[in-house]
Amino acid sequence: MSIRKKKLILGMPRTFSTYKVIIDRLEQLGYEVIDISYDNDFFKYKNVWDRFINLIRKIFLNDKGYKSKLRFESLGSSILNKLKQIDGKADYCLLIRADIYPRNVIKEISLKSNKTIAYQWDGVDRFPAIKELIDLFDRFYIFDKKDANLIDENYLETTNFYFNHLYDKKVTPKINTFFFVGSFIRSRWDEIRATSNLIVQNLGIPNFILYTNDETIINKNSCEGISFITTPISYEETIKLTLEHHILVDFLTKVHAGLSFRIFEAIGYKKKLITNNPDVKNYDFYHPDNIYILGEENRTINDFVKSPYFDIEKEIISKYNFDNWIKNILEN
Length: 332
Prior knowledge:
The chain is α/β, with parallel strands linked by helices. The protein folds into two domains: 6-158, Response regulator (Rossmann fold, 3-Layer(aba) Sandwich); 164-319, Rossmann fold (3-Layer(aba) Sandwich). The protein has helices at 18-28, 48-60, 66-73, 76-84, 103-111, 186-201, 215-220, 235-244, 261-268, 301-306, 314-319, 322-331, and strands at 6-11, 31-35, 92-96, 116-120, 139-142, 155-157, 174-183, 205-211, 226-229, 245-250, 272-275, 291-293. The strands form two sheets. It has a six-stranded parallel sheet with strand order 2-1-3-4-5-6. Strands 9-8-7-10-11-12 form a six-stranded parallel sheet, with helices on both faces. The chain is globular and about 60 Å long.
């Protein structure tokens, strides 16, 4: 007699193909996944008015979610059709960055799921449209502690995670190499450039990869150890590069204070980490031999690199593995 697989509706951005890794792992863990994720890499405004309204909302209302709403309009009908095809109800629905989904669609999703859960893996203030949707979920999770002051008692704190099943222990990292990959954001460019130069001065080898499709940015900005790409690297390729490097580097954006995936990958894959996020000191995995906080250290990066890695307790490391994370999100 076969055991019935639990059904899970998953909706999230397809950017950098993280969703593929999540779906694959969920299926390996025994879930039947109904994918209602959205592709936000290709979008054109229907008219000048839509572009203008998006600009006004972004500048004056700090609403970066309006463009996402426009983008979703072209996907709405296909998602609703997928929901109609579900036999009975799914056991769970997990929406990551739920602000992209219109309220009426989330209501339809909740009717097809026994438990509807949201995880806002970006700052609430960055996408304020989510505030009007929280009441639609059985559970609403945030990763940025400061958002606790913005949300009522319905919020729950969690963190990002890493994928232990992608950890290839046979890969030998290149000694004294420093890896960072992310999108080009103007507000953090000066610090990224300064950190790359600091690593070079300490005889390290930075490999910083920044994604942008703006040729002007690429032509006007250059620095040793920093390269630009115009096509995003997939998440699996990012992990492959992560494992090949000795030390990971993480840059906090000003729009949130939560810990990025890079930090948990460093913990899970036993990598040393350089970050500008001082909040990392407040977590159970923090150890000064493993984590160097930019702007708060008396020692040099070279001294940090030479000190031995401190082994974190296995129980702490496994707590942030996706397998445990998804179990806690769905079952608790």
